[in-house]
Design brief:
Strand content: 5-15%
Strand order of the largest sheet: 3-2-1-4-5-6-7
Oligomer: single chain
Structural class: alpha/beta
Helix content: 40-55%
Number of strands: 7
Number of helices: 8
CATH architecture: 3-Layer(aba) Sandwich
Largest sheet: 7 strands, parallel
CATH superfamily: NAD(P)-binding Rossmann-like Domain
CATH class: Alpha Beta
Mean pLDDT: 96
Length: 244
Amino acid sequence: MKKTVFITGASRGIGRAAALCFAKNDFGVAICYNKNLAAANEVLAEITALGGNAAVFKADVSNMAEISAAVQGAKKTFGTIDVLINNAGIAQQKVFSDITEEDWDNMFDINVKGMFNCCKCTLDDMIDKKCGKIINISSIWGIAGASCEVHYSAAKAAVIGFTKALAKELAPSGICVNCVAPGVIKTDMLASFDECALAALSEETPLGRLGTPEDIANVLLFLASDKADFITGQVISPNGGFVI
């Protein structure tokens, strides 16, 4: 029976790569986006061209009503949600003294509350079925911390703590909850970095290159598969050796 994956932040970057990767592996794909409908429709068109099954849903993940409506729409379209990937997130570089209360709240609203909202909206069905996969996207900075990104690092560390606790709670229901903490990945989050900075980051990475969204998508696919049924509560960090 074909499974369905619900991916937040699926219109670009890692989310887009994941949507395409899962579609190529016979998943139904619920493409959840917030602001860029054109980009989300491009992902939909690519999946359709591949012969895959996908649909687009709009939601601000920090808004419970919006994400609840998107999840209900996905269930009506696909019948079920078997895999949830909490990928939607924001980043910001600021020295701590310049971080405002608004910056802090926005960072946690999207990166942490958004994850909470999505899990709340999808878990009941997974618990009823006694199966399901939840994969949360953190960052190497959630593991190691990053200068000038205290609020981002703190939010991504919260994703890791959330994952480990929820994994313990849901294991008796047969649900696996894991976390992927990518290293430096070539997405539009690096748009502010010039070529020299990107080259320096590549040199700092033992494998000698930046990661790609596809590198992360392949890890997500594995964790969502039956091959990962005995893996839960773990933090997998594809980072080329940047943080060990």
